[in-house]
Amino acid sequence: MSKIQQSQTHKFGTFLGVYLPSLLTILGLIMYLRFGWVVGNMGIPMTILIVLMASSITFITGLSASAIATNIKVGIGGEYYLVSRSLGLEPGGAIGIPLYLCRTLSITFYSFGLAEALMMFWPQSLGAAPVHAVQIIAVIIIILVTLLSGKSAKLVLKAQIPILIFVILSILALAIGVFSHPLHSPEWTPTYRTAPQGFWYVFAVFFPAVTGFTAGIGMSGDLKNPGESIPKGTLGAVITGAILYMIIPLLLSITVLLSFDQLADPDLGVGTWTKVAFLGGILVYPAVLGAILSSAFGSVLAGPRVLQALALDGLAPKFLTRLSKSGQPAIATWVSGGIALAAVMLGNLNTIAQYVSVLFLTLYVAINFSAAIEQLVKEPSYRPRIKIPWFISMIGAIGAIWVMYLINPYACVFALILESAIFIYLKSKSLEQQWGDATSGLWINIARYALLQLNRKKLLSRNWRPFMLLFVSDIKDRFQLVKLAAALGQNRGVLTVSKLIFDFDITPDKREEMQLEMLNELREKNLEAFCEVNTVSDLNEGMVTISASHGLGVMKTNTIVFGWSEEKENQLSQLKVIRDLSKINKNILLVRFNKKLSLNKIYKQIDLWWGGKENNGDLMLLLAYLLKLNKPWSKAAITIRSAVSTQEEKQKLESGILKLLPDAKVEANVEISLIGEGDFTALLIEKSKKADLVFLGLGNPAQGDEVDYAKKITAMSEKLKITVFVQNNSMVDTVPVLLKEIV
What we know:
Amino acid/polyamine transporter I; ten-stranded mixed sheet; disordered N terminus
């Protein structure tokens, strides 16, 4: 928003901005149409119970909204803003998009209701009203309220003051009418005269009377002090409505002007007031019409502001954020008015109204759930002025879900499916969120708890998993290596990709930008891994230092992954680093991809060469098993190979491996070759040149022997597709003991 627009935008206080629209939405049409019906069926005690139960849910939701609003600087978007800043962008969008549609369709509903109410003034002298008279009047009402709200929110809100006066006068007229005639005792027990479905049916019909209290929250971006106005205005409106809702049924139940049968008549409607009120309908009808108009005004003010907030967060086109000279979201208002006009063509909206009511209730669920999560997570930044125990908020959420079910079970299921579908879609878009949320804190708490529980245990061979650290200079250049490392973990281990830089002057923002770029590169390829950028002064020392300290508690990194360099100087450095890493008990995977040979997408053969002198075979077999859990490798056959000098050694080794494989629960072929005085490299290439991946043991060359060992690694892997040299440096009881048992 420009400075000019900011200066021209009128900001509202508690009464005009929150209390007034919230109270008028509560004291709406259902108060006039259905209160007599509730009293006539339920009797006064059960009616008061229904009012208290319904108001409790809205009061708890108001408390939850107030807790969130007093903890953050509230911006544009009302309820959407509160939910998205607590639960995150995707959950917020899943609530916000249906919320916008509900508010927009509500403009149509209330316009239809007002049009139908106005039809009672149609002069009989003009004959029957035109067939489409109600729709035509509804269109005119939508256009008028849209023009007014687009012009000035201040004008619309001030127009609600005379409406409030009419509503108060109608209640006073009802009270005067009651006490100006004889009284009788109220009915104390439920009769269910016209509501044989029972208590919960009546409760579900009445509940919409107490909703709409979030109308003022929808004006959050237009408030002078949202953190103060939202709690005072919202809770004040809920309490005022609850008090009036306990007085009105008491008045209706003691007047002799209406029998209990008349009260229970659903067709009597506003007549329950006009038959009792002082001056009949003179003071009641303007209040009824004003209540409907006020609800339409509330929807046409709040809806565009939700759309504006969605656009600001990138969930709707950016042009919808533009403001008029008076600071109103003009384009969002015209779009909302257009949708409301299009909805007129739907004709009868009674069925859709139930779905809209249920979608509104999901908003109450989300607000209560947000407050509960915030309280449970206990982020250091969560310091609301209004505190509410988490279980109270959860009671409010459960109560709202129960009412959703009561109103319409099918609509309840539809709402949950719709919002879940929107959430999944938004999640798939990998949206960038510019704020922290409570869900991150929740995962931190879960991770902290899990790590503390693990810290009490000693991880043995049964629990061993690959916690891998992979050093790369560029993910794009080493994508095949990252992909293979991720496959070796196969969702059972943890992979961290580390980029080493030498710039100690790098800013935190630049470092974060580099990490985010790495994450995005992985996500584009559907790979999941942690990414980090580490600054070092020396490459080799940096690798060792980072590897030694990497991880947390029992989840310290146990396996380091390298890509074999094609540069001779780098090869020697790698071997020296590997030797240092072996001293701190880190497993090593040294991988070479032969770019000269084509790599398959569906793999058929994994060869594992066991030398018998080290524990490397155990780790190789486990890695081969983990690799086969990936779909592209699932059809690959594992062949355990070895080379011995005599027939006796061959028989002993072959029978020993075959005997142990069932215990290892790994399906593998065994092929032992006689090498005699021959060259192992030649045998390796002969047997494994068609294999998609070959595991080989990796030794530690003595100091000064690095050149010869580097030549040996290059020669062995030169004609193989993918070669993984494995060095097991873990303690004996941290890897599955399999092949080493063979003597």
